[in-house]
Amino acid sequence: MTEISFKIEGMHCAACARRVETELGKMAWVEEARVNPATEKAYVRYDPERGSREALFEAVSRAGYRAVPELERASFRVLDLRCAACVQRVEQSLLKAPGVREARVNLADGRVHIIYDPAAVEDTALREIVTRTGYAVAEERDLSREEDREARRFAAARRRMLIAWIFTAPIIIWMIPEMFMHFAPFGHGKLNVGMVLLAAPVVFWPGRETLAGAWHALRGGSANMDVLIAMGTLAAFITGPFSFVYPVANYAGIAAMIMAFHLTGRYLEAKARGRASQAIRRLLQLEARTANIIVDGDERQVPVEQLQVGDLMLVRPGEKIPTDGIVEQGESSVDESMATGESLPVPKEAGDAVIGATVNQEGVLRVRATRVGRDTFLAQVIRMVEEAQGTRVPIQEFADRVTGWFVPAVLGVALFTLALWLLLPGPMNGVLAAVSPYLPWVNPELDQVSLAVVAVVAVLVIACPCALGLATPTALMVGSGLGAENGVLIRHGAVIQTLVEARTVVFDKTGTLTRGEPAVTDIRAAGEFNEKDVLRIAGALEQNSEHPLARAVVSRSRAEADLLFPAVESFSAVPGRGVRGMVEGREALLGNRRLMAEGKIDLTDLEEDILDFERQGKTVMQLAVEGKPAGLIAVADTLKDDAPAALAELHRRGYTTVMITGDNSATAEAIAAAVGIDRVLADVLPGDKAAEVKRLQGEGRKVIMVGDGINDAPALTQADVGIALGTGTDIAIESSDITLVRGELAAVITAINISQKTFRKIRENLFWAFFYNLVAVPMAVLGLLHPVIAEIAMASSSISVVTNATRLRRAKVKPQFTTEGN
């Protein structure tokens, strides 16, 4: 028997679940079928020899619903990726596999990110597909092993470069007089022999990896950067032996120089890529290696991998907290800068949550582990940064289409160049004659075959898909890493472009603009009730609710020492309105005007007090008992310190700000005036926030929604960019496009700054990559570029793209305003 689970779309109630179970149970080969309407998932145990998953899906469809396979993610590193053509080849191979929904390869760090159906294809099969395509797959991440592997690869690249230059340096010294003065020391005969003897080791020893890469690509039915370099060097090298039997110029030395510069470019590119991918390595290095735990009263040191949920950890001053947990004993301050980007220590005492890998600074803490391994905050951050680095930005789509046919197009241009020089020698020689006074490497006196070879080799080595392939991933790697270091967690690359384009920012009020810690400020009693009666009844009702306003009422009620809460029967929460229940045998309602209107409660005598409180920006909760008004409770939430300054900065940059809240118009307008909001959407029920965001989008706006990431999840999902504010481990990472570790609005400005600077680097890189190829290739076709100069230009283009992206690390992204005096 086989057990599988899958999602079912379209169910609304338990009857729907029962209908699906019945339909699945009709098939004789199904032993058990259970459907959970809460999670909308089906669990089926069946005989795979008699039935199939597709038949189960058809049964769900007959019941009137849609079965959706549960998808999983896989990520691993692919070795020996050379250029954007390699990326396309791996992605296309994976996408052909059954069950693979999405495959993205990041050229900058070599990682592939796959979304697949585990019932259709296994993780190991995905790795085998990559291996069959001609690339090696690295082992699972281990920091020390990965660093060792990187060091070995870097050393090998350096060794190949040095060996190439040992043989190439004499060639250059020997060739310079011939290139620029048309004079050959020791005579042309010795020069020709020397070029071949010195060039052969360069091409076939340190250059063999490039030649092997070209062979693997061609054998797999594709072409990559290695193919272009191999064809260019071999075409140039073969002229050396040919020159002894045929009157053609000897370009064997040029072949060695092309390969040497190519290997130098690879080495410098690897060095620059290492700087670009430092963010992940730094995050991994933050992890604690060991933990001191208390077992039966004794202290024991264990590797952090052996920690389990519930272990009691002992953390001394100066030590890293091994994993996420709750402080059970002790007081201290903790440096949480690795998570929040803020250098000021955070006070901690019993009951406070702490984040793994943060540093305990002062006192001794006893911490109960709550998350370990892949579930920790740091592990989630690393996973999120890796996923972001493997995604695409919309502006990159055209570059991806270009790289798909780039190498075949270059081969076509090379053939066209060969035909042009052999069939139209007159016009082509005329161009060379015109520019030869200005370009010393141009020699129009060479025979036509030699000139054709020079032009073809230059075309093959000048065209560079690498720069196009690296333009976006490197900037995205640095940008997402910079975000993680500053408490801004970016889920996918497309958000960066959308955040730059959006000009409307919608803020939820409670917990976003305000501290989310309201307190009771005023109490008014009515009729036969006094203030203590109002607090006692309201406290009894609200102790069953988790709403922030409810906690404020309960807290104030408990502060009155002589108040005891009576029992509540038939309690129910009315979404967006309040609560109701039977208190001391009488029906009590506590909530807003809507609840009172539905209960037909006459608030005429309290209307003046209600309006007065609302003008002050306070939320007014009305209490009614047995159909009559019993009193009012006014609750106020204070604005966050940086809210006015953050809103002022957004206005300075031209953003339109909107506040969305369930408060009435008077309260909402008072808060909006205090913080500087442009537009207020008041009296919005929790379930209608997404609809309001959609309405703003219908006005032609791209909308950024800022909320707490939990209560505002539908609105965050509906918005073009959802930004969730959080604090420490309380972040709902899955509910947003961007998650801000700190609950400050200044972090919104930081996120916008990072996105703008990252997107600017992406645009710069793509522009120069396209501009380089558009200018360089025609020059090569016309024979204006010496192959060595072409190779130097090609290597420089890739290195400059990566280097330009790494400059982003030095960017200042935190807002410069302060919160003092706001």
- Return residue spans where pLDDT drops below 50 for at least 5 consecutive residues: 728-732, 818-822
Major β-sheet strand ordering: 17-29-28-27-18-25-26
Class inferred from helices and paired strands: alpha+beta
Number of strands: 29
- What is the mean predicted local confidence, pLDDT? 82
Q: Kindly estimate the percentage of residues that lie in beta strands according to DSSP.
A: 15-25%
Main sheet record: 7 strands, mixed
Please give the share of residues in helix: 40-55%
> How far is it from the N-terminal to the C-terminal residue, by CA?
66 Å
Rounded to the nearest angstrom, the radius of gyration is 34 Å
- Put simply, the count of helices is 28
Shape: elongated
What does this 3D model show about the protein?
- The chain is 49% helix and 18% strand.
- With 822 residues, it is of the alpha+beta class.
- Strands 17-29-28-27-18-25-26 form a seven-stranded mixed sheet, with helices on both faces. The chain has a six-stranded antiparallel sheet with strand order 19-24-23-22-21-20.
